[in-house]
Fold this protein.
Amino acid sequence: MGSGQRSLTTAAIALVCAVTVLSAPGTAFASASAPKPPPAPSSGGQGGGDASADAKNSADGGSTDGSSAGTPPTSTEDTATDAQLEAVQEKLDKLYHQAAVATDAYNAAEEKAESQSARIAELNRQIDAAKAKLGELQDRAGAAARAQYRGGTLPPEMQLWLSEDPQKFLDGAQLARQGQQATMGLIDELKQTKTDLGKLSSDASDRYEKLEANRKEKASAKKRVKKRIAAAETLQDQLEAKEKERLAKLEEEAARQAQTAWLDSGVLKDVNTKASAAGREAVAFATDQIGKPYVWGAEGPNSYDCSGLTSQAWLAAGHAIPRTSQEQWKRLPHVALADMRPGDLIIYFEDASHVAMYLGDGKIVHAPRPGRTVTIAGAGTMPILGVVRPDA
């Protein structure tokens, strides 16, 4: 058995193990933003390929002709290799898609935790202010009580009868009534401050509980991201250099075919809108990041994930938008594909797990996945869920 066949057998074993441990439902997250090319026909079956079976069919005169990427194979071994590589690519797509979904969950939990932390800090400031006010009111109430005790030895009628200047007494009585009203107001304010302090303390306690829940969710999502990426990297490490090169060519060809089919559908026939001023700024920021690596959870300036790139690009253009692709899809205004313009965001996959920025002429700029860099690609290389406009 040649070294290529040994490495592919190892890859197939790793693939089976990865499927057993990490299989989960969901649309594949296209590496290099491309759907999987159709597999080459073989009697060994699709998705993994049996090299010995294909070799036997070839020896028996059975046909193994055909290529999944549009390039005719030069030998039986090439056909088997392509079939196995397609199975590896399919699993890689699933793993990176699962990593993208987990990344969105991580980003959402992080955003919530930051919001809760900010709210807790504000509540603590309000609690401190309420405590200070409560202390001041208690001092004033105590002073008023002491003054009333010292001046309350005779009833008002007796004070009036004994007074040498009745008018002066009446003026003093009026002031006394005003003082009593002020005292009652002080008592009411004291009660309200105590009530407000209790509500603030209760709200802060609830916020702390939510913050802890968000931190746990964030930690769990982080583990899922790392696990999927590690599994994908392990799977790729089983391939030899020539197999990685062939896998990249299959991937590129699949992306080209998908983009061509999308353009041939006439989808851009009526798309001729120009970018807004803010859209041009967002595009300029995003394209300036080309070549920077994808890092999950990153928002720049040296690395980005898909929604980190789009959110920061629009922030630079003066529009704060949601952090995650799923929230961008939920909360930003939707526009028809035929009405999209440069700067708009294209949301991909049914679960809105990926986002890119439209550049015009059927192209996007995006941060694809781990191991890749911010790049320009065809807008039709992934299944489009819809388009949203941050500055609608």
